[in-house]
Amino acid sequence: MSLRVPADATVLQGTPAPALGDPQTAVAEAIANPIGTEPLAELLAKRKPKTVAITISDITRPVPNRDFLPALLETINTAGIDDSHIVIIIGTGMHSPGTEADREALVGRDILDRIEVIDHRADDPSTLLRVCDDPPIRVCARFAKADFRIVTGFIEPHFMAGFSGGRKGVCPALVDLQTVRRFHGFDTMADPNATMGNLRENPCHEIALKIARAVGVDFLFNVAITGDHRVAGVFCGDLEQAHQAGCEQVAKWTSCRIDEPFDLVITSAGGHPLDQNFYQSVKGMCAALPALGEQSTLLQISECSRGVGSRAYTDLMLRYDNDWRAFLRDIEANRNETRLDQWEYQMHARVLKRVGREKLGFVSDGIDAEMQKHLSVTPILGEGDVQHRTQRAIDEYLRNNPAVRVAVIPDGPYTLLQLP
Questions:
Q1: Burial level of 405, CB count in 10 A (0-12/13-18/19+)?
Q2: Same structural domain, 270 and 344
Q3: Contact, 232 vs 16, CB < 8 A?
């Protein structure tokens, strides 16, 4: 989307990550020279597993699975494990199960025809296995029972867990509803350390890592990607060491330092596939927080082709109908009973505390105009498409507020803003 902004507007971006010239070769080299552990081929030769489980991210994440799954599968096959003893599990967490088209988009028809590909079902007790009693933790049984467990994914700044990737491929990707609720509980989300780019004393990170350790991950395969979703880096091997190395590199690529808040901040929800619903769009809002002061206005643009989000999340937004303060009072008073998807509204409330609903503009064509009026935002409605309405909102703001500081965050939640 092209927008007109003042000539002195600041574009907030990190240093663009360069795409690898030959991702397949880089993947093969990384598998053969992992971080903090023996090569995958050697691990498989020593363990001699009969079954292997590989978990991948769901359709909301732009992970270039087709660039690395063939090499992983070839290594596994070479170790003597037949395709019939391999399962690929889509780590849906609490997201809706995917369609056949989603699965094909994720892994490609050739792999879909060869390998069993299933969705994790956090709501189906028959598919879960209890791996811990205190607290009780249940995970995808197919993953937990496999003789060898591989977690894949990509690393990006994450608005509550610090960074994605690593342990998040197990929790919340493969756990049950109750575990997700603890992972996203009121106190966890209220902790200021549960924020973008931070792993130190981050309860969200620590809970996920503890659960991943309890389940056991034999090999991690994470990538970093460019703005157009190509492989920029490969970080594989030990669950913690490889992830840490990836986070450090991604932080260098995505970080952007700012001196002080701006008056008007225009941001995205990360583009396809992340901005498919309003639930995911909250990440773009939260990523902009370091650029926002109490008098700032935030203009959030998101496609939302799949609407608001889950039924539970939609009902939650309708129930409180913009009264986010009442929502916060209720979940704090009932802090031991985490409702499904309340965590996203709680993170959304961080932005509302800073600028208020009136200064949180939202532009989308994917959600019915009437519904937008109940989502604790100020919807930018009227004639024209998203681009037209966004430009009109920018122009009106500048007419009413001359000589202001304007910032644009093209990559939205993929940009790690840092104040001094």
A1: middle
A2: yes
A3: no
Query: Model pTM greater than 0.90?
Result: yes
Q: What is the token pair recorded at 166? A: 């690593």
DSSP string, 114-178: HSEEEE--TT-GGGEEEEEETTEEEEEHHHHTSSEEEEEEE--EETTTEE-SGGGGTTTTTB-HH
Cis amide leading into 413 (omega within 30): no
User: Looking at the structure, do residues 220 and 84 belong to the same domain, yes or no?
Assistant: yes
- The residue behind tokens 């496609």 is 303
Average pLDDT by stretches of 10, the chain with 420 residues? 96 94 95 98 97 94 93 97 97 84 94 96 92 87 98 96 96 91 90 96 95 96 93 97 98 96 97 93 97 98 96 97 98 92 96 98 97 98 97 98 96 94
**Concatenated DSSP letters for 304-331?**
-TT-S--HHHHHHHHHHTT-HHHHHHHH
180 is in which domain, residue-wise?
A: 23-254
